[in-house]
C-alpha cells in the first residue's frame, strides 16, 4: 500500500524529531562530560597553585625566621661584646687609678727596703747592679747595708750592691728598684709598676668576679 505524501512527511518529521532529540541528548552528555572534566582540571590546577603558594610562603616564612635568628644572634653578640668592652675599660680604669695612687710611694724607705731584699733573694748573686729613680738614690744608698745584712743572715751568702747612677729609672715612674747581675743577663724588675702588673694579672679573674659576678661560661678557675 503506497504511502501518501502526508504520511511520508509525517514519517520524515518523526525521524527528524528523533534525530534531533538524540543529538540534543548527545550534546547534553558531551556538555556534562566536558563540564565534569573542566571541574576536575580546574580543581587540579587550583590545588597545584594552592600548593605552590603554600610552598612559596612557607619558604618565605623560613627565610624570615632565619633572618630574624641571624639578626637576633648578631645583636646578642654585639651586646655581649659591648658589655665585655665596658668591663675591660672598667678594669683598665681601676688599674690606672691604682697606678696613679702608687705615685709618691716609691720613695718610702720601708717599701724600698722590702723590694731590694726580695730581689736579692730572687737573684742569689754575689755582685748586683741596682737601678732606681735619681731622686731615690740617697734613700736607697742608706738602705743597702741593712738589706745586704738581712740577706746574709737568712741565706748565709754575701752580696755586693752597686747603684747604677748612669741608668736611673724614669723620674715620672712610681718608683721601686730593678736589680741585675751577670752583666745584665739576669734581671729582677721590682718596680712598683712591675709589681702592679704582676698582681693585677694574677688577681684579674677574682677582680672580674667581684665586679661583675661569676662567669657561667668559665670552666677553669686557675
Describe the fold and architecture:
This protein has 222 residues and is α+β, with helices and mostly antiparallel strands. The protein has a domain at 102-203: hypothetical protein PF0899 fold. Helix content is 69%, strand content 9%. The chain is built from four helices and four strands, in the order ααβαβββα. A four-stranded mixed beta sheet has the order 2-1-3-4. Strand 3 (176-181) and strand 4 (186-191) form a beta hairpin. Helix 1 packs across helix 4 and helix 2 crosses helix 3 (137-155). It is rod-shaped, with a radius of gyration of 51 Å. The termini are far apart. The mean pLDDT is 84.
Brief summary:
With 222 residues, this protein is α+β, with helices and mostly antiparallel strands. The protein is built from four helices and four strands.
Low-confidence stretches: none
> What is the global morphology?
rod-shaped
CATH topology category name of the domain at 102-203? hypothetical protein PF0899 fold
CATH superfamily of the domain at 102-203: ATP synthase, E subunit, C-terminal
The name of the CATH architecture of the domain at 102-203 is: 2-Layer Sandwich
Mean pLDDT: 84
Strand content: 5-15%
What is the oligomeric state here? single chain
Query: Strand count, sense and closure of the main sheet?
Result: 4 strands, mixed
Numbering strands along the chain, what is their spatial order in the largest sheet?
Answer: 2-1-3-4
- Determine the fraction of residues in helical runs and give it as a percent range: 55-70%
Number of strands: 4
Secondary structural class: alpha+beta
